[in-house]
Amino acid sequence: MPVQINDETFPVDVELAPLIVALHAAGFETITCCQGDPGQRAYIEFADPRQAASFLAIVGRDFDLSHESLWNRAFREGEPDDGWERFRAERLWECSAAPHDFSIIRDAAGKLVRADDGAAVDFTITIAFPRDDIPALTALVRAAR
Fold this sequence. Notes:
Blueprint: E1 2-5, E2 8-11, H1 17-25, E3 30-34, E4 41-46, H2 49-60, H3 70-75, H4 84-91, E5 94-101, E6 104-106, E7 112-114, E8 121-130, H5 134-144
Antiparallel strand pairs: 1-2, 3-4, 4-8, 5-8, 6-7
Helix pairs in contact: 1-5
């Protein structure tokens, strides 16, 4: 589904599009995202760790210690005694960091080139969560704006 962010249009998976639009309207910058197939995790890659932390702070407002709460699954504080293997494999959120050189851009021909003399390195953070969390996350981000 085409999504317009500022003056550019990007393809975004249809189920994830409302969340990405809400995030950008709230001032977040994302790099990539994918809603995943049914039963898989969706993910969003944030442009820097501070933005990923801000997103998690929005999720953190929904404090609830029950196993299935967004808060618990995002912050990994508890799991059920029965079915913990499935819970870990399918319900817990996952976060990962990767170095990113923001000085690399595409030129007019689409070739990757360095925009200046040095690397502009920061870490991007990818947050993966169950696909069925997308509607609740969209509502939380919209409410936080």
